[in-house]
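I am still getting used to backbone structure tokens and would like to learn alongside you. Label the sequence line and the structure token line clearly, so we can match residues to local backbone shapes. Go ahead whenever you are ready, and we will take it from there:
>
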Amino acid sequence: MKLQLSNAILFLLLFTVALPAMSFAQQKVSGIVKSSSTNEPLAGASVLGKSGATAITDNSGNFSINAATGDVLHISFVGYVAQDYTIKENEGFINVSLQLSTEQLSDVVVVGYGTQKKVNLTGSVAAISEKQLANRPVTSVGNALQGQMAGVTVTAASSGQPGSDAGTIRIRGIGTLNNANPVIVIDGVITTLNNLNNINPDDIASISVLKDAASAAIYGSRAANGVILITTKLGKKGTSQITYSGYVGKQSANGLPDFLPSWQAASLYNEALSNEGRTLRWTDEDIQKFKDGTDPYGHPNTDWLGLFYQGNGIQQNHYVGLSGGNDKTQYSLSLGLYDQNGLVKKTNAKRYTARYNVQTQVTDKLSVTGNLAFTFSSQKQPTNPYTGNFTQLVRQINRISPTIPYKFENGYYGYIADGSPMAWLEGKSEQNTEYYDLLSNVAANWEPVKNLHIRPSISYVMKTSHSKNFVADQQYYDADGNETFYQGPNYVTDGNGFMNTVTMQALVDYSKSFGDHNFKILGGYSQEYNKYSYDDGYRKSFLNNLLTDVNLGSTDGQTTSGYSYEFALQSYFGRLNYDYAGKYLLEANLRYDGSSRFAPENRWGLFPSFSAGWNIDKEDFFDNLKQTISSLKLRGSWGKLGNQTLSSGLSVDQQYYPYISLISGSQNYIFGGTSPVIAAGISPVSGSNEDIKWETTRETDIGFDAGFLRNKITLTVDYFDKLTNGILLSIPVGAPYGLTAPVQNAAKISNKGWEFTVGYNGGGKEFTYNINANVSFIKNEVKDLSGTGPIIGGYTFYDVGVPFYSFYGYKAAGIFQSDDEVAKAPYQSTRTAAGDLRYVDIDGNDTINSADRTNLGTYFPKTTFGLTFTAQWKGFDLTVFLQGAAGVKNYTDLGKIGSVSSSAGKPTAALLNTWTPDNTNASMPRIWYSYTQNDPNSTPSSFWVKDGSYVRLKNLQVGYTISAHILNKIGINKVRIYYSGQNLLTFDHLYDWVDPESPNSSSIYYYPQVQVNTIGLNVTF
């Protein structure tokens, strides 16, 4: 009996030990989590096993976890209904589809000082996710925004040069004559546009753009030009994850001028001289030698562009991220490298980034977050002894005639009056600039009682720069080896800049519900202090061009210079949100800002806003429509915004101390009559104005958001009316005033427009696709200039009643076909003849003069649009992104069509079809050399204004994600390989070598925008 009992006890013990092994044998289970409505994978979904194992889905929705047969996996994702899944026997791979929650909490967007459900927004806010930024070979985040959101216009930089190619961002038009850049907020830290372009795109979790006054007024003094909110990636609970993304690409010029060979350039030059009654420069024998190449040094055909654009154009980007955490603390750490070689040798830009984000729950009521980001960036470029900058090399290469040899037979450089661009490029002149940027923020969130949050924070931003410009001297020789002219002496300028910004902020918010009544109130205070200093030293006459340290130059003529400034802001702000049952929405904002730029009596500005919304789809009467119209919300808002940032074109004292009369040093005095002595002195140089105050922008917005067919189709429409009053402007004054004109509140600008955004999600289980399109229509108009105007700059101007910075010139009415036509037409000049442009006599005085100049259109587009198509099939994915503009003008100046000369001037193919007595149907007037009546630079006219509308294939991506079944065996969560192309195709009405995105001011100085083809890799461990 005892034996039998002992055996029974032993059996029970063995059974107890073996039962978990038999019933809960662990196995590797993989799967994918998707949205049931769109069939798209859900990245970041949480998978929790009964045993305590956890997993997070990767960017493709895949996960892998240890689980046993019968184990229940709890799968959840923000905004979706959580689901429990029971593991079946021998089940190695599962498909999970999560349903959208009824409130669609996934549509949460970042707004000022917090987040809101999109369904509850009453202002106009646009947002894009990290997915829309991923894997594009753009050099800056700002450029990546182009075409992505209605109302956000990004125009290309004035140069495609590495380090100088960041685009210009305008939100709902140009709203001021001063700095019109939007304010940038990165993880709660208010900063500048430069910091936006310093962020590694791989670090970004989301971007929100506050477009109207209602959404932006919480930032008051900063918000008149819109607000861009950047949120960087945070760690998530679960197993640590390592990600790598990288690409290598090759650049090529988007378009180079089609310059004519030397024999045609010489022929056109002769033709121009003949038109002006001058002696011909080249004989027929000369032109034949240019054509047949029998005299390569005396009659060359120099391909200056081919010599100049020999850089390898290789760019590469590498990023490594580590993230993870537990219930208490989550972290994210990343390192990045971006390296871009230019199309010209010795041009390069680099960017190294490091970021660490951490958040920890110290107690049940207290959490702390910290963000630390550091960026080192550098730019290298050749320079020259003529002007000391790189843009002169680009200008010179676009104007030096092909009849000038690259080098003479004796090996010395060929040149024109101001030098040789290849001598400069191949010399020792070089400018190196380095930037060190630190952005840090520490914040706490204390909840002493439920729903009451107290959030203090302090941020510190430091920016330092070091620029060293060494300019080598250059001795030129003629074809016989004799010394001709000298460019020198050599010199070096070494400068250092330092800026720091300290911002302290405190926020308090409280939310409370009473039945269907929901309230949330926010109050805050911030103060910001900025200080900048700069100093440099200059020495010349170094022993040779290998010595570049400033202390090795001669002390004779050495100089030092420097300056500094500081400014501060102080702000109080608040926001009240109310909704009734999610149907009726109200929001009110108030901000009170003080700026050190204004006198004490004008220092403070009050900026309120109000907005309301109606979620019609939540009404009972709407239930029968929901099968067709899934959601419908009406919105309306009004707000007042401020601006206190003045134009960077003003002097430092006018930008930061415009109300104070400042004294400047280095104002020398002369004493002594016939034996003068120069004595150092000081004097005022700039006018001041104690009465200036805030620029104010008032904006009204009306819009609606709608979804159709269970939100497969979405539509957002907005109309806005924005008026900026009291724009700070330095109005021209008469010479007797003696000082730089003071700043005044002197101008008014209006921007009105429509914005449309539409999206469609389609496809089935294996094939899914998405189409998103946006278009904006903007009308800009200067309303007041305090009695001044037109204010003219070259062939652009601004004046009351026309868009800001429009083209200005004569209205052309074709080409004169005979001298008789010239005689009968209004008088132009004594040189006017058949083949010249005919201008319209607008004022009717029978003479063409400056009073006949008029508005010729604007280079700021009235319409901008973007279209994105994405598709997925099994492991393959495709993205096509088109972007464009319409209602925009482009001016064809000499920098774009070329000119004729035997030295500084060369024509493009555009000048082949010029008017002659034998070619009267020509597209161009008769060719000119020194006469100005046809010259687009000297005599601007509508003849040279072209339609600048375009459509560009901005990005094309084709990728393949390797099956998770294969990767799980080697412990990798995801591998995606892809091809990405940038700026691949362009459709426009301009010459092939004229980029429709290039600013008109660049012209002959334009370093072309680049086309980039890259191969990339994404890996998640």
